[in-house]
Design brief:
binds dioxothiomolybdenum(VI) ion, 26% helix, single chain, seven-stranded mixed beta sheet
């Protein structure tokens, strides 16, 4: 039976048809003592990674390989009047120059139909590509392409872009889809009328680039009419389909491989133009083509978290109960269609009957936004949690008590109860570990110019995953097994998690199992690794495939052990009698006797599994709360994060080691958003002035606070058969809000713009003293 089920990825819900599994194993009871899940297992590919043996796409060099480099627009808005490639083509070693004149049109995402367009809408937009014998010749040839540009008026910030006289980036104006996205429940005017306290503030969040350690890259190779692409991507199967569509190939003739990834964070979702161009060139030239973007190209053209200007108005009664929440958000999507919403946290996380959000996505002449780890939620939560602290202060309530006062037991947007909601546990456990209730004593230790402050923020994220996701498990005649999983490991240790799930269900130790992921050849379909969906989508598929193998294995064992199959179970490498656990037989012996003793036909067992539908009568969400302690130097304006305690509830814990690594990574990236990261555009040229890792600051080892990761384990049997929810994105969400609140607590004055740079701290202090401050860096 097929069922239509709702799947939400990065806040965007869609309906997916899925076959309802008939033989899916029942969810383990929350209190079940499992043998492998929940245990700290080192990554199965740890040795490859730390020894440098793991081959990333960047490491791949094929015989006779050529290199591609891209010429990018130096102007934020221009038309190509003419383009002359003859000098470039004459350079020895140059094999091909692709421009709008000779490149085929391909169906493209975001409403773009051309590989190379004649209208350029941002600095970094693709103009041409050169393929040459090596990278340096290709780079030299770029400089020999003569392009005559007709420069057009441009606009770099979304508020100016909405003015009636602003340069239009597309026909139909700069407001994407011509209208804001509006959500409303209850009556906000009534809610504000009932409020005893009201706050209103405007928050400006920065444009944050992904800054992946491995920049974007692909290698394309043809064998006859078959294409293989090694791609640094978060989505091997979806990219295979997109490549087949773009090039008019049968899906079966395209193979996409990404065995290791040096980070994506959303910027490696979706097929990229350079990948298609490399495939076209490789076919034409009969040689493999490699394309790697450099750090500047990555910053200029590979996406970002869009900047948002968010005005929040919030009202509550004397006792702290929220009566109204309102958000007006303007987000800059860049030059082409993308998402820039920020309202979901405000709509969802706190109990409030009257809510209205109005979100405008606006074109500007800059690089296009892309999903960036918890898109919308990072900036939306950062603003919301600050507005709540302001309101709590007006009521004279402790910020934690204020949040507990407005705790919501139901999903007010979807009108559903939650399956499991562990936010209260997150608050309590993090507060206890942080020492929230006795922070006054710690504050009293502040000396001189260095002021201590304490803040918190909470988080919701729809990382329940969902179909599609398929897996195959083989059990061989020596009792070892192999998992074939459709997804890829983007650095989150999915390889290890999937292997643990198979080991648990089969009753085998993890070291008896191998796994293949990140290669469309030999694996069944798996979706993208985005929206924290990989584990909750893929693990139930792996478990179901392993369960099918186990059923067959137990049937073999039943014959061998003279016991009914339904009395048998597996654990730690043995089949055992559940009525009499000392009666047991090694799985390896059962397999050997059962699979090699009966001729050559049945020499291994195969199981197939897939991800079933999501429940439609409960809302499955991921929860977390973080507490931050900062020290602000009021002489220099510098903020030092002393400590972050991060508690997250994401269902069952597969692996506390890799799970806490996700939490630490999220906190670090959230700290970058709070304090350091910002794309700076020069108004006079439209260029990004900090398109490198020297001027674009990300946190380094020197900046690290003490991070305490707390995994609140609450297995969620309604979510899926493994009881898990996603953990990739949740930990980045509340960090910046907690830090901003801690800074405000330390200073007694709030910085409404992120990142909280020393200059902005000094400006805020100057404003409080009634003096006019210095200058700020950003427009
Ligand atoms: Mo993500 S931003 O779903 O990789």
């Amino acid at each position: 039976m097929k069922k239509l089920t709702t799947v939400e990825i990065d806040g965007i819900a869609s309906d997916v048809w899925v076959e309802v599994p008939e033989n899916e194993p029942a969810a383990w009871p929350p209190e079940a003592e499992l043998a492998v899940l929940g245990k700290p297992l080192a990554r199965v590919d740890a040795y490859e990674k730390v020894s440098g043996r793991a081959k990333y796409t960047h490491d791949l060099n094929l015989p006779h390989m050529l290199w591609m480099k891209t010429l990018r627009s130096p102007y934020p808005h221009a038309r190509i009047v003419s383009i002359d490639t003859s000098k470039a083509e004459a350079l020895p070693g140059v094999k091909l120059v692709l421009t709008h004149k000779n490149a085929p049109d391909i169906p493209w995402y975001g409403g773009r139909s051309k590989l190379f367009d004649t209208t350029l809408r941002f600095v970094g937009d693709e103009v041409a590509a050169v393929v040459a014998a090596d990278e340096h010749i290709a780079a030299d040839a770029l400089a020999l392409i003569d392009v005559e540009y007709d420069e057009l008026a441009y606009v770099l910030d979304p508020e100016t872009a909405l003015q009636p006289d602003a340069p239009a980036i597309h026909e139909g104006g700069n407001l994407m889809q011509g209208r804001p996205f509006v959500y409303s429940r209850g009556d906000v005017d009534k809610g504000f009328a009932e409020a005893d306290h009201i706050v209103e503030a405007t928050f400006r969040s920065p444009c944050q680039v992904h800054a992946c350690l491995e920049t974007h890259c692909s290698v394309a190779q043809w064998q006859g009419d078959r294409l293989t692409v090694w791609d640094s991507t978060q989505a091997v199967h979806p990219n295979r389909e997109a490549l087949a569509r773009a090039l008019g190939l049968p899906i079966a003739d395209v193979r996409v491989i990404c065995l290791y990834s040096g980070g994506g964070f959303g910027s490696k979702l979706g097929l990229n133009k350079y990948t298609v161009a490399a495939a076209i060139a490789a076919r034409q030239l009969g040689r493999p083509v490699k394309v790697t973007l450099d750090r500047e190209e990555d910053a200029l053209a590979m996406g970002n978290r869009p900047l948002n200007v968010m005005t929040i108005r919030a009202g509550c009664q004397r006792d702290g109960a929220l009566t109204a929440l309102q958000l007006k958000s303007i987000g800059a999507v860049g030059a082409y269609n993308a998402g820039a919403g920020a309202g979901a946290p405000l709509r969802e996380i706190y109990k409030c009957a009257n809510v209205k959000t109005e979100e405008s996505a606006v074109y500007i002449n800059a690089d296009v936004a892309r999903p960036h780890r918890a898109p919308g939620h990072v900036q939306g939560t950062w603003a919301l949690e600050q507005a709540l602290d302001m309101l709590a202060a007006k009521c004279g309530l402790d910020p934690l008590d204020f949040r507990l006062r407005n705790y919501s037991d139901t999903d007010q947007v979807r009108n559903l109860p939650y399956s499991v909601k562990g936010l209260r546990d997150c608050y309590e456990r993090a507060a206890a570990a942080f020492g929230w209730r006795d922070r006054a004593a710690r504050r009293a230790q502040s000396r001189g110019a260095k002021k201590r402050g304490f803040g918190l923020a909470a988080q919701v994220w729809g990382g329940s995953g969902g179909p599609p996701g398929y897996a195959i498990v083989n059990l061989y005649s020596d009792g070892t097994a192999h998992v074939f999983s459709g997804c890829q490991d983007i650095g989150t240790a999915s390889r290890t998690s999937m292997l643990q799930v198979a080991a648990e269900e089969l009753g085998l130790p993890p070291d008896k199992i191998g796994i293949t992921m990140g290669d469309t050849q030999g694996t069944p379909y798996g979706g993208q690794s985005g929206g924290s969906r990989t584990t909750p989508s893929q693990a139930p598929a792996v478990r179901m495939a392993a369960a099918e193998v186990k059923r067959q294995l137990l049937a073999l064992a039943a014959k061998q052990m003279n016991l009914p199959a339904d009395r048998l179970a597996t654990r730690e490498g043995f089949v055992f009698d559940t009525a009499n656990p000392s009666t047991r037989k090694p799985i390896a012996e059962v397999a050997r006797a059962g699979l090699t003793g009966q001729g050559v036909v049945e020499n291994m067992l195969i199981g197939k599994g897939w991800r079933g539908p999501n429940p439609d009568d409960v809302s499955v969400q991921c929860w977390g709360a973080q507490f931050a302690e900062v020290e602000v130097d009021t002489d220099t304006g510098e903020v030092r994060v002393v400590k972050v305690v991060a508690a997250h509830e994401t269902g069952r814990i597969i692996n506390p080691l890799t799970g806490s690594s996700q939490i630490e990574g999220g906190v670090i990236q959230g700290m970058g958003f709070a304090l350091y990261e910002e794309r700076v555009l020069n108004n006079a040229s439209g260029r990004m002035v900090n398109a490198n890792l020297h001027d674009y600051k990300i946190p380094t080892a020197k900046d690290m606070p003490e991070i305490e990761a707390i995994m609140v384990e609450m297995p969620d049997p309604r979510a899926n058969s493994v009881g898990i929810k996603g953990l990739g994105e949740p930990p980045i969400i509340p960090t910046a809000g907690a830090i901003a609140n801690a800074v405000a607590d330390a200073l007694g004055v709030r910085v409404f713009e992120a990142p909280i740079t020393p200059q902005r701290v000094l400006d805020a202090l100057a404003r409080r003293k009634g003096r006019t401050g210095g200058t700020t860096l950003s427009p």
